Amino acid sequence: MSETTAILSTFAKDIHSGLSSNPKCLSSKYFYDETGDQLFQTIMGLEEYYLTRSEFEIFDQQKKEILKSFLGEDTSFNLVELGAGDGTKTKVLLKYFVSQGVDFSYSPIDISQHVLDVLSEDLGESIPKLQVNAIQGDYFDALAKLNENHFQKEVVLFLGSNIGNFSNGSAPKFLTRLGDNLSTGDLLFIGFDLMKDPNVILSAYNDKLGVTKEFNINLLRRINKELGANFDLEGYEHFPTYNPITGETKSHLVSNKAQEVFIKATGETYSFDAWEAIHTEVSQKYSLKMIHQFAEQAGFKVIKNFTDKNNFYVDALWEKI
Ligand code: AVJ
Predict the structure, then answer these.
(1) Residue nearest (by alpha carbon) to ligand 1 atom 4
(2) From atom 5 of ligand 1, which residue's Cα is the shortest distance away?
(3) Measured in angstroms, how far is the CA atom of residue 218 from the centroid of ligand 1?
(4) The whole model's pTM is what?
(5) Ligand 1 atom with the shortest distance to the CA of 51
(6) What CA–CA distances, in Å, run from 162 to 3, 130, 192?
(7) Separation of CA 65 from chain center
(8) pLDDT in tens, the chain (321 residues)
(9) Candidate of 29, 30, 31, 40 to mutate for ligand 1, largest count of ligand atoms within 8 Å of Cβ
(10) Which residues line ligand 1 (CB under 6 A)?
């Protein structure tokens, strides 16, 4: 890289290291600029994208049981949500808990202050009685801060199969670190997308309208815009794969010709062979056995699994040992 390295953003450094690797890769955490957020909102409403609908069904149909399990022997708790987003699904639970007169507060944690502002305003209007305490920042910093000031039981939500973006190698480390920031008896309510008919899974990442393709290609558009690159957006095919043995779903952008791209921010040119691929995302699918192993490895006890009627998806409730 050129001598400007020292002043390069983390974004530029990550993109440089990904495009210099073999095979090439780019991190899915960079999908979410404003356009990426909007595209993901659209994905959540797609016919093929069963994940959101399945989790919504679990909340809607089993909210009474969920509340009972959250409370356990206690009479109150603090509900913490990691990566709250727009809170559409969570609202089903929040509304129900408020209607039942439950003594709880809600602390959404997100890296984006903008997301938190929109969510807080929306909740102020739709559930005015709800006590909201939004925290901007890194998940672990925010959890540590909460743990200092709270004597109530924490119930941490990590929904949407966001855990799926971690490889199976890195997920246990993340979950262990999460547990390190909790106290004995605290709860983790975590959404996992289950293994199922491979065709159903592949369609969810290759929708007819091409929204997921746009979502994937938007990463290149973002690099063009923010790092001054000249990716030809027509020069890459969207290609997801699912491995039914490991449960790994991967998204790729495949270069449909030999081509080069120049990125101003790194001062470098990157070459693609014809049909060379960039790996852009992992969306891991799980068996219940894998999920139980994760809980054990990370120091949690399994309390209950909540699944939808199709058995497509599970929200697992774990207790910190
Ligand atoms: C937000 C990570 C759960 O992997 O299913 C949707 C993102 N990627 N379509 C997922 C996504 C392509 C989504 N997660």
Answers:
(1) 283
(2) 283
(3) 14
(4) 0.95
(5) 5
(6) 37, 25, 8
(7) 25
(8) 554 555 789 999 999 999 999 999 999 999 998 899 899 999 999 999 999 999 999 999 999 999 999 999 999 999 999 998 778 889 999 999 999 999 999 999 998 888 899 999 999 999 999 999 999 988 999 888 888 877 899 999 999 999 999 999 999 999 999 999 999 999 999 999 999 999 999 999 999 999 999 999 999 999 999 999 999 999 999 999 999 999 999 999 999 999 999 999 999 999 999 999 999 999 999 999 999 999 999 999 999 999 999 999 999 999 999
(9) 40
(10) 43, 51, 160-162, 164-165, 205, 212, 215, 281, 283
Å from CA of 283 to ligand 1 middle: 6
- Return the number of other C-beta atoms located less than 10 Å from residue 177's C-beta: 13
With H, G, I as helix, E, B as strand and everything else as coil, classify residue 86: coil
CA nearest ligand 1 atom 2, residue: 162
The rounded Å distance from CA 49 to ligand 1 centre is 9
The candidate with the shortest Cα–Cα distance to 82, out of 152, 182, 216, is 182
Kindly give, in sequence order, each residue whose CB lies less than 8 Å from that of residue 264, ignoring residues fewer than 6 positions away. 227, 228, 229
